[in-house]
Amino acid sequence: MIQGKKQTQGLGMPWEKEYGYAQALKYGNTVWVAGQVGHDERGQLQEGMEAQMKQAYVNIETLLKGFNMTMEHVMEEVVYVTDLDAAFIARKNLGRLVFPDAMVVPSTLVEVRKLALPGQLVEIKIVAQE
Questions:
Q1: Where do the domains of the chain lie, and which CATH numbers do they carry?
Q2: Average pLDDT of every residue of the chain
Q3: Is the pTM higher than 0.85?
C-alpha cells in the first residue's frame, strides 16, 4: 500500500501526453527522473553526443530544481547511448561539470542499438534523494 503523495513533473513536451508518462516523480524523499534526452525547451535535439549529453543534464537539473533539489542529490545515473566510444569521451569531458567529485555518483554506461527519437544519441536516467 502506498502511503503519502506522489508528485510529478514534466517539461511540457508533446510526447509526455502522447506516450503517457511523467518526466519525474517524487515519493517520500526520493525522485526518479525518466531518461532525459538532449533536447532544448522547444523539443529540438542538440547536434552531437556531447551537446546532447550536456542538454540532458540541463533537463535533469531543471526537473530536480522543481523538487528543490540539485545534482548533489543524485544517488545513481544510467546513461544509454548509441555510440559507446563517443559517449565515454563526452561523459569524461562533462562529468566534473555535472558532478565535481568524480567518485560521488554510481554511473552505468550502456550502449543500445536505438533510442526513442530520430537522431537521439543519449538518454540519462537518474535517482535522487534528499
A1: 7-77+90-129 (3.30.1330.40)
A2: 93
A3: yes
